[in-house]
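Folding Problem: From Residues to Backbone Shape
Fields: amino acid sequence; protein backbone structure tokens
RECORD BEGINS BELOW THIS LINE
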Amino acid sequence: MNGRRHGELVDYFRSYPDQILATLSNMDGDSFFAWQLWELPEGARHHDVDVVTLDQRTYIQCAGSADAMSVEVRAFDDDGVPHQLIVGRPGSREGEPGVAITFAENTLHVYELEVFNATEAAGIFYQYFLDGTIPAQYVTREFDMTRPTS
């Protein structure tokens, strides 16, 4: 959460889908603005987080608020090169991305088709949690990590 805290996703009090939705619904874009979900290696626990460095992880993450967030996945191609991908609905993406997603002191510009609320994002996160994929009705595009956020 916010790149600073980590813990296990558990289903002690709520089912996994309900826990994901509750977590994303609490995002306010300020004190809670980012959440990332990734799988630990077999047998590792969340306190063993250092066993997988960030450059080795595949993950799904979001930034923004419960009303307007971006969803991204990190995946590796067959040559082991990582790619940051923004998730969105199918449709045309022409011109520069014009929708501002604000989080903490940052702004990320995405296309309207790439803006999610907590409910829709929770479905994407849950599918990723189950099998490491995003639902088939969504598409991805490469995120240019060299473009600064404001």
Notes: The two ends are 21 Å apart (CA to CA). Residues 7 and 133 are 21 Å apart (CA to CA). Strands lie at 34-37, 59-64, 69-76, 82-88, 99-103, 106-110, 139-142.
